[in-house]
Amino acid sequence: MEQHSQHFKENAARALADASAVAQRDILALFTPLMREAAVSEFGDFAALRDHVKKMRQHTLDNLDYYLARFELEATNNGNRIHYAETAEDMNSIVLDICQQHGARKVAKGKSMVTEETGLNDFLQRGGMEVLETDLGEYIVQQAGETPSHIVGPALHKTQQQIREQFLENHDLGERDLESIGDLVGEARTVLRDHFLEADVGIIGSNALIAENGYSMLVTNEGNGDLCANLPSVLIICTTLDRVLPRAEDATAIQRLLVRSATGQPQTCYTSFYSGPRRAQDADGPLETHIVLLDGQRTDILASDYSEMLRCIRCGSCLNHCPIFAATGGHSYGWVYPGPMGSVLTPLLTSLEASEALPNACTSCGRCEEVCPSAIPLPDMLRDLRHEQSVQKITPASWRNGLRLHAWIATRPRLYQALTGIGISLMHRLGGKKGGFSKLPLASGWTSKRDFPAPQGETFMRQYRRRSQSNER
Amino acid sequence: MNDDSRSRIMSKVRGSCAGNEAAVIDQAREALGSAPSAALPHTDTCIAFMTNVLRNQGTLDVAPDRSAAVKMIAQYVYQHYRSHRLVAGNDPRLAAMPWRDGGVLPRFGELEAGEQIALSYAQWGVAETGATVFLSGKHNPSRNNFLPEHHVVLVDADSLLPDLETLWQRVNASMAQGDRPRGINCVAGPSSTGDIEGQIVYGAHGPRAWHVVLLGEVSAEQSDTARALHAGE
Ligand code: SF4
C-alpha cells in the first residue's frame, strides 16, 4: 500500500475538521472499550490467560526456527505447497503466478491485513484478475476506492447513509429503498454470493499456524473467509512467519484472547482450522492449497529490540482505547496499520523517516499497554522509536534543540526551580484575574481550542518547602 | 518452493534463536502449562452448552429420541419454508434417521446454490463456546455449513464437551489414528457482521439462522435452567 504517514499532521487536521466523522469516532471510542470490558470480566481469570499467552508467544518467537521448520514439515505432509516471500513484491508475484498457472480470472478474498500491506489486489488486477474483497467492511472500502481505517472494522469510518448511496450507485439492481443496515448487509450478501460460487481462487489470511499439525486457524463472524476457503478449487493462504504457534491448544488460547479483545464477543461465529487440499474421500474443498509465508522485515524485527511487537495478534484493542486514534481516525496514519500498534509497526516495516510523526502521535497515557492481550509494552516502544529518531536526527532540529535545552535545565534543579518560579508567578500576575489565557506565545495549538488555565502563583516545590519549614517550627 | 528465499529467511530466523535441542524446547513448552478456559454459565456441561447456544443467537430444540428430532426438524423447516425439503450430508447417522416420521424429504449430498436449508450432524458440541463442531470429510461437506440460509444442526447430548482443551484432546486422538480432516469447523451462531456503524446484523455471508437440535437425555429442568440463565442476562 502507498504510504502517506509523512502527512500525519495534515491528515489529522483534516480529520478533526469533519465534525460528523469526529462524532461517529467518539461514539465508537466510547462503546468498543465497554464491549471488551464486559467480555473480559465475564471470562474469569483473564489476567492469567494473558500472562500464559504472553509467555507462550515469547517461547515460540525464541524458538521460531524450530517451530517454523515443524510447521513446514507438517503442512507439506498435509498436501500444501509452502512458499517463502522475502518481500511484499515476492508475495504478490507468487500469488499471481499461482493464479495464472490455473488460468484463473476471478479471485474471492477474505480479510487479510498482510495483503493490504503488500498491495496484492492492485497487483493481481494489473495482472488481469478480477479480485473482490468479500468481508463486508473490506468490500465497502474496496468499492469506494479507499483503504481500511481499522484493522478489525475496515469501514467503520463510513456512515450508513454513505454506504447506501455507494451501493445505489454501484449495484445495478433497480429501484429500492435500502433503508436499514440489514438491507445493506442483505444486498452485499446477494451481490457477493455469485462471486463466491464463480471464483477460481480463494485467498484468505491466517490467525495462527499450528506447528504440531500444520493447520491454519481462521477466526471470522461473517463466514466469508470460510466460503473462500471451501468453494474455489484453489486456496491461497497469505500470512507471515510470525503467526506460527506450537500446538492446537495454543491457538485456542489465542482465540480466547483475540475475540474478547477485538469485538467483545466470547467467541466468533466461526472458528475454523484447515489442514490442506481435498483428500480422495472428501466431499468438497479446494483441490490445491498454497501457504505463502511473508518475511517482509519480520526477521529484522525478530533480531531487534522490538521483537516483542511480533506477539501482536491484530485484535485492534489498542486502537479502540487510544485517544489519538479516536480523535484522528485510522486514515490519518497513512498506512495499513493505525493506532498504537501501527505507530510501532509502520516505522519498523517501512522507515523511521517516512513515519516520523507516528511515534510522536502519543499522549503516553498507557491505555494501549493496559488492554493489549499480548502485553506488548507499546508506550515504551514508542518512546524508544522517538529516541532513535532523535539520535538519527530525523526529529526536526527545533524539537531536538528544545529538548536539549529542557534537559539541560531539568538536570539543574536550582536553576529549574528558579526559572519555573519566575514563569509561574509572572503567568499568575498576567492571567490570575481572568483565570486563564485565550492566547499564549508558543502554545497556540492549545489555546486555539481552549483557554490555558492560569497558575495559582507558586510552584509545588516552593509551597512544599514553605509548608515543611512551618511544620518544623 | 523457492529454495533461495527459504534458506535466506530460515538463516535469519535461526540467527535470532537460541538454537536449543528439540527436547529442551519441548520441555520448556510443557513447563508453560495450559491456558485457563472461560468460566461456564453453569457447572453442568449440558446446561452450559444450551445456555451458550442461546447466547450465540442460536435457536434450540431438545429431542429425547430420533423420531422426535425428525418431527422437530420437520416443523422448523415447514415453519420457515412451507416445505419439507432439506439437504443433508452423507452422514450414515443422518441416513438412518426415521425421516418418514416427520414427512421430511432430505436430499443427501452437497448443498447447491439456491437450496435453502442444510442439516448437519455435529461431531461434538463445546460448552465453553456454545459451538457445534464439524469435521469435513466424505460425510460432511463443509459448504453445507456455510452456504445455506438456515443451518440445522443435530448434536448428541452425550457428545458435549466442557471446553476447547477437551475438544483438541478428542481431535488429536482421532488424528493419532491417522485421520487428519481437511477442515475443522466450529460454528457458534448464525453468521453476523458489525461492519456498518458497529451495528450487529445476522446473515452476513453464511447462514441467517442456526438451529440446534440436541438429541438425547436432557431433562426439562436442564432446559429450563438454560433458558432462565439466558433470559436473565
Ligand atoms: S498491539 Fe496488542 S492491542 Fe494492539 S492490535 Fe496488537 S495485540 Fe491487539
UniProtKB/TrEMBL annotation, chain A:
Sorted alphabetically, which PROSITE patterns does this protein's record hold?
4FE4S_FER_1 (PS00198), 4FE4S_FER_2 (PS51379)
Domain (4Fe-4S ferredoxin-type) spans: 300-332, 353-381
Q: Which GO terms describe its molecular function?
A: 4 iron, 4 sulfur cluster binding; metal ion binding
The record ties this protein, via InterPro entries, to:
4Fe4S_Fe-S-bd, 4Fe4S_Fe_S_CS, FTHF_cligase-like_sf, Helical_ferredxn, LUD_dom, LutB/LldF, NagB/RpiA_transferase-like
GO terms (BP aspect):
lactate metabolic process
Signal peptide start and end residues: none
Supply the alphabetized keyword list: 4Fe-4S, Electron transport, Iron, Iron-sulfur, Metal-binding, Repeat, Transport
* One Pfam family it belongs to: Fer4_8
Regions of compositional bias (Basic residues) in chain numbering: 463-473
* Domain of life, per lineage: Bacteria
| Keyword check for Ion transport | no
Keyword Transport attached = yes
Chain residue ranges for the region called Disordered = 448-473
Descriptive protein name: (Fe-S)-binding protein
Q: Organism source for this protein?
A: Pseudohalioglobus lutimaris
Automatic annotation (TrEMBL), chain B:
| Secretion signal span | none
What PANTHER family does the annotation carry?
A: LACTATE UTILIZATION PROTEIN C
Q: What protein name applies here?
A: LUD domain-containing protein
Q: Which Pfam families match?
A: LUD_dom (PF02589)
Q: Which residues form the LUD domain?
A: 117-215
Matching InterPro entries: FTHF_cligase-like_sf (IPR024185), LUD_dom (IPR003741), NagB/RpiA_transferase-like (IPR037171)
Q: Which organism is it from?
A: Pseudohalioglobus lutimaris
